[in-house]
Amino acid sequence: MRLRGFLVGLMAASTLVAPPLSTPPLSAAAPSPALSGLTDAVAGRLALADAVAASKWASGAAIDDPAREQIVLETVSQLALDLDPAYVRTVFRDQIEASKTVQRGLFAQWRLPGQTAPAATPDLSAVRAAINELNVAIVDELAASRGIVTTLRCPPELVASTTRTAADLGFDPLHVAALVQAGASVCAVSTGSS
After folding, report:
1. For residue 72, what pLDDT is reported?
2. pLDDT tens digits for range 92-136
3. Of 175, 165, 162, 176, nearest to 48 (Cα)?
């Protein structure tokens, strides 16, 4: 919980302090933070929460879908291979909750006077297929980042990567908060099953 509070505080501070207009944008030549692949995959998954929300809004479906959530958790546990399945499940619980944070935030916006939800189809199969691909990418990135996520380097690297990803994608405050929430369990004491 302390790590999550630390990350939320750093992300909040970084989003509240706008750089001077003369500050050049991050260039392609600037080195990427160590966990950028992971935060990019997580952000891609979060970006799909908008389509999920629109579909659920159109169909009247509930945001919470325990059956689907269980399928996701079981699937990623099987993908874990040389990672601790409990660690992977915990990280993905955060992914699911962050997605629901975005969905709830969008529902709240769409309920405001003068606001409308985007047109959407109630069929989520294409979006779920994309989410499944990103789930695999996230597990792969967790495995590739094993040497970082189990060390004290993880929190500052995660903050740097999250900040860069959010800026690169132009995330609004709702999506930035969800991105921070999605990374809450990434920094772990142990991810190996040995």
Report:
1. 96
2. 999 999 999 999 999 999 999 999 999 888 788 999 999 999 999
3. 175
CA 63 to CA 50: how far, in whole Å? 12
Residues 6+ away with beta carbon under 8 Å from 152: none
Buried b (16+ CB within 10 A) or exposed e, 54-70: bbbbeeeeebebeeebe
CA count, 13 A, side-chain hemisphere, 33: 21
Distance, in Å, from the CA atom of 178 to the CA atom of 49, rounded to the nearest integer, reads 10
Cα–Cα separations (whole angstroms), residue 157 to 9, 28, 49, 186:
15, 18, 25, 11
Q: Where are the alpha helices (DSSP H) in 80-153?
A: 85-110, 125-144, 146-149
Q: For 1-37, what is each residue's pLDDT tens digit?
A: 333 443 444 343 333 333 333 333 444 455 678 899 9
* Alpha-carbon dihedral angle through residues 165, 10, 42, 144, given to the nearest 10 degrees: 90
The pTM score is 0.81
Q: What is the CA radius of gyration of the chain?
A: 17
Query: What domains appear along the chain, each with residue ranges and CATH number?
Result: 35-182 (1.20.59.10)
Give per-residue pLDDT as tens, 134-188.
999 999 999 999 999 999 999 999 999 999 999 999 999 999 999 999 999 999 8
